[in-house]
Design goal:
This protein is mainly alpha-helical. Helix content is about 60%, strand content about 0%.
């Protein structure tokens, strides 16, 4: 049964209360813990910087394309819709959606690849989830009583576990986050909606950037072709871009609906496996103990999503048209990283101070990862001409 977004009903398997914060704080008179987390993320400097970080296309193509911030907002909107229908904790879902990309460096995936490569030259690595945790635990400084944002356990756990699993033997510093258990459905949802959001959005931006033609997309993305035939019959005289928009809207709506219904079926299956209990009595403990993640598309729709993603990898992400920008991103990050490793005295004073306690490579990595595209260009011009 559909649930009203104005009156959400919390399911038995949803997160109802937080386990708490690292530093105890009195409760707020009119905001719950997860609403406070959402607000702390929104007011953070790292969140604001997302506006000037590349998603896929730089502003060379258009000011209308998604950046990390607008992508994040789209993920939050889709996630809230699905969470309401599944009876999940919408406030926790929104906080997780807003924070899920906060650890990404400048220049999109090209920047992340270059930064990881630079770190591996010094026996380490870069992981945007782990970096996001460092941001909210330490780098953000807004409160006199503690460092970081002092987010709830559930949001910190979701930052780490929403998109992948970590082994406690390899990451002992993350042991507190129940690495032997599945994350709650609220965290699982973010990974799924992230995929749905960028698969449809990148088709849209790729078409607007003229990297993709309508015929290319229809040939390479069967689900798009199917909906396009329907749209052509309904709106034969509409402009091509408006027909395109109608198709993208239908694709996303179809996938979101499938995700809701298939996840309900998965939860019912867990109920059946747990001593023949109905889904109404499935608990968060059942979700955590489950050997698999439950927020999933049906096999047929998952095949459509994979086809779309494979098409985007071939025709957009690894398009020759984007190679110059990716090469520039890798060169800028590599050159600046090497510069500050050789001349740490050229780092800002605050980072020079951090280098007295932490490995220099990690300090340089933290500095670079926090930069916007605009700022790192400025630093490159300043130091490398």
């Amino acid at each position: 049964m559909a649930r009203s977004p104005d009156h959400p009903i919390l399911a038995s398997y949803a997160v109802e209360h937080s386990r708490g914060r690292r530093h105890s704080e009195p409760s707020h008179p009119y905001r719950n813990d997860f609403q406070r987390d959402r607000d702390r993320v929104i007011h953070s400097r790292a969140f604001r910087r997302l506006e000037a970080k590349t998603q896929v296309f730089t502003r060379r193509y258009s000011d209308h394309f998604r950046n990390r911030l607008t992508h994040t907002l789209e993920v939050a909107q889709i996630s809230r819709t699905i969470a309401t229908q599944l009876g999940l904790n919408v406030d926790l879902v929104e906080a997780l959606a807003l924070v899920h990309d906060i650890g990404h460096p400048p220049f999109g995936h090209a920047g992340e690849k270059a930064l990881d490569s630079a770190m591996r030259q010094h026996g380490s690595f870069f992981d945007h989830n782990l970096h996001a945790l460092r941001i909210v635990e330490d780098f953000e400084q807004r409160y006199a009583a503690f460092r970081g944002l002092n987010l709830t356990f559930e949001v910190r756990e979701g930052i780490i576990k929403h998109s992948r699993s970590y082994n406690a033997a390899e990451y002992p510093e993350l042991a507190e986050y129940l690495l032997d258990q599945q994350p709650p459905l609220e965290a699982q949802l973010i990974d799924a909606t992230d995929e749905l959001a960028y698969n449809t959005a990148d088709l849209d931006d790729g078409f607007e950037a003229h990297l993709l033609t309508l015929d290319q997309i229809k040939e390479g993305v069967p689900v798009f072709a199917r909906f396009f035939s329907e749209v052509e019959r309904l709106y034969p005289d509409a402009a091509e871009k408006l027909q395109f928009n109608e198709v993208i809207r239908r694709m996303l709506d179809c996938w979101v609906g499938d995700l809701i219904e298939n996840t309900r079926a998965e939860i019912n299956r867990v109920g059946a496996e747990s001593q023949s209990r109905p889904s109404a009595s499935v608990t968060i403990a059942d979700i955590r103990a489950c050997p698999r993640r439950l927020i999933t598309l049906s096999p047929e729709t998952e095949a459509e999503r994979r086809q779309t993603k494979a098409f985007l990898h071939e025709q957009v992400y690894f398009s020759a048209a984007l190679d110059p920008e990716k090469e520039a991103a890798e060169r800028i990050i590599t050159d600046l990283f090497e510069l500050w490793m050789k001349h740490p005295e050229k780092l800002p004073e605050s980072y020079q101070g951090k280098a007295e306690a932490d490995p220099l490579a990690r300090v340089v990595c933290d500095y670079v990862a926090g930069m916007t595209d605009t700022y790192i260009y400025e630093q490159y011009e300043k130091h490398c001409g």
